[in-house]
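Protein in question reproduced for absentees:

***
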Amino acid sequence: MSLAVGSLAPDFTLPSTSGSDFSLYNNFKGKIGIIYFYPKDFSAGCTMEACSFRDAFDVLEGLDAEVIGISTDDIPTHLRFREAYNLPFHLLSDTDKIAAKKFDVLAPIIGFVQRVTFLVDENMKIAAVYQNLFDARGHIDSMIKELRRKSIRV
C-alpha cells in the first residue's frame, strides 16, 4: 500500500529529463506537486496516462500544480518518450527504485512499479493519492478534482 494522505512525502533525488537532478524537497518545497509513478515508457496504459497529463497540463498550470512522472526507465528512454508524445513536464529515472521504495509503490513479491499518483502540498505532505493500475485516465481526473476542491491550500 502506498503512503497515506497526511504523511510527509519522503525526499529523494533522481536524474531528470531536464538535464539536472530533481530533488523533491528542493524542487517542490513551497509548491503544489503531482508525482505520478508508472510502470514503463511506451506501454499502452503508461502512454495513455502520460498523454492525459499532457492534455490537462494547462489546467494543472492554472491550478498552480507542477507535474513529474517517475518510472524505472533510464533517461535516454524517457527523453524519447517525452519527445514522441510532446510531454510538457519532466520525467525522472528511478532505475534503482529508490523513490518507488520510499513511496511504497512496488507491487508485492514481483516488485514492479505500480501506477500511483500523489498530490503533495506546499509543506511536503501527501494531500491525495490515487492508485489504479488499469484506470490511466482516472489519475489526472482525480488530481484535478482534488486541486479544484482547494483542500490542500494552507
Q: What stands out?
A: The chain has one domain: 25-149.
